[in-house]
TrEMBL record:
Similarity annotation: Belongs to the XseA family.
Record InterPro entries: Exonuc_VII_L (IPR003753), Exonuc_VII_lsu_C (IPR020579), OB-fold_nuc-bd_dom (IPR025824)
All copies of domain OB-fold nucleic acid binding, residue ranges: 23-117
CDD domains documented for this protein: ExoVII_LU_OBF (cd04489)
Keyword Lipid biosynthesis: no
Domain (Exonuclease VII large subunit C-terminal) ranges: 140-357
Its EC number(s): 3.1.11.6
Name of this protein: Exodeoxyribonuclease 7 large subunit
Lineage: Bacteria, Bacillati, Actinomycetota, Actinomycetes, Micromonosporales
Taxonomic source organism: Micromonospora noduli
Catalytic activity, as annotated: Exonucleolytic cleavage in either 5'- to 3'- or 3'- to 5'-direction to yield nucleoside 5'-phosphates
Length: 413
């Protein structure tokens, strides 16, 4: 098959194979055809570079995504640029109507724009407000998830512009308050198309450093357009995902980029960030002195109070003359002994009387008492007491007991 036939089969949608591969030009043609199907689109981006060649009618732009490290080349007519955005500068936000084109000769993709609009301040604010509501609905501004800053961080991560006033303010004021504080500073672009990717990368580096206890993102004041990178969605989500507490110190008191709502602590200025991150050594020394003074006063009051209590205890008779207590107990013991003796004597006397009365009653009821009055007891030989004459017969031996002695007798009738 001829080369032209392969091109024709490729153009008709025939599949390529190892035996019948497509030439580079066919692949380029197919890529260009697929890209052309996209048609005209509206594109939002930030101007990273403008190239106006003298005498040329074509203007080249480099359009960058504010949230990612991506860019595309845009070509347009000078008249289109002058009519839509005559004072367009690098860093500006634009919306353009363009068609993607694939240049087969160079194998590059670009956009050909027929309309360019520079985004105005009102439209920017409307977009920021819409993004603010979206992030708030997702919980990125929730106060419950904000972390408290450490009382005294061992090392502070600082993200700011190189040799900027914000960097100088943070370092100077922080070290003035606590001279021993340590910093790890990462200098980044704080405005322009490369600001967001650099700040996000710096956040990842500092958040991964275990020695960093808190991260400060600082920038001086500026217009709304200058502070736009700090309202970028990708940066806000990166701050939200940090494990290390983040302090936002962007602009002045009146500036409020979206990163302020996501950060754990919002500082009105870089100087305010220094005051919030580390304590004032002079103030802490003063507070420690006051605490020591209060502690010493409390200890003295406690010692004085206990001394007075001990003096009161020592002045009591029981401690002033300890033998008084022994003497008192001895007196009580002697009284108890006397009372016990009297009780015992009374009980013995009562018992003796009871015994005497019992003995008298016993004697009164005893048979011996009856015998003493002249009576006798007659018993048979078997010891049976004879109570009737019929109980004995003639010739029966009897025993007669008297009060004093006994008699032997025989019944004779």
């Amino acid at each position: 098959m001829s080369e032209g036939g392969r091109v024709g089969s490729g153009g008709s949608g025939g599949a390529s194979s190892a035996e019948e591969p497509w030439p580079v030009r066919v692949v380029s043609q197919k890529v260009g055809a697929w890209i052309a199907k996209l048609g005209w689109v509206w594109v939002d981006g930030q101007v990273a570079q403008i190239s106006r060649r003298p005498g040329a009618s074509t203007v080249f732009l480099t359009l960058r995504d504010p949230s990612a490290d991506l860019s595309l080349t845009v070509t347009t007519n000078r008249d289109v640029l002058d009519s839509g955005a005559p004072e367009l500068r690098e860093g500006a936000r634009v919306v353009l109507h363009a068609k993607p084109e694939f240049y087969a000769a160079r194998g590059t993709l670009s956009l050909r724009a027929d309309e360019i609009r520079q985004v105005g301040l009102g439209e920017l604010l409307a977009r920021l407000e819409k993004l603010k509501k979206l992030l708030a609905a997702e919980g990125l501004f929730d106060r419950a998830r904000k972390r408290r800053l450490p009382f005294l961080p061992g090392r502070i991560g600082l993200i700011t512009g190189r040799a900027s006033a914000a960097e100088r303010d943070v370092l100077t004021n922080t070290r003035r308050r606590w001279p021993a504080v340590e910093f790890r500073t990462v200098n980044v672009a704080v405005q322009g198309p490369s600001a967001v990717p650099q700040i996000v990368d710096a956040l990842k580096v500092l958040d991964a450093d275990p020695s960093i206890d808190v991260i400060i993102i600082a920038r001086g004041g500026g217009g709304i357009e200058d502070l736009l990178p700090f309202s970028d969605e990708a940066l806000c989500r990166a701050v939200f995902g940090c494990r290390t507490p983040v302090v936002s110190a962007i602009g002045h008191e009146t500036d409020a980029p979206l990163i302020d709502y996501v950060a754990d602590v919002r500082a009105s200025t870089p100087t305010d960030a220094a005051k919030r991150v580390v304590p004032d050594l002079t103030e802490e020394v003063r507070l420690i002195g006051q605490a020591r003074h209060r502690l010493e006063r409390a200890v003295r009051n406690l010692v004085d109070r206990e001394t007075h209590r001990l003096d009161g205890l020592r002045s009591r008779p029981v401690l002033a003359r300890p033998q008084v207590m022994v003497e008192h107990r001895a007196t009580e013991l002697a009284a108890l002994r006397q009372r016990a003796g009297r009780c015992l004597e009374h009980r013995l006397a009562a018992a003796e009387d009871d015994l005497r009365h019992t003995l008298a009653r016993l004697r009164a009821l005893s048979p011996a008492a009856t015998l003493d009055r002249g009576y006798a007891i007659v018993q048979r030989a078997d010891g049976h007491v004879v109570r009737a004459a019929a109980e004995v017969g003639k010739g029966d031996p009897l025993r007669v007991r008297l009060a004093d002695g006994e008699l032997a007798a025989t019944v004779d009738g």
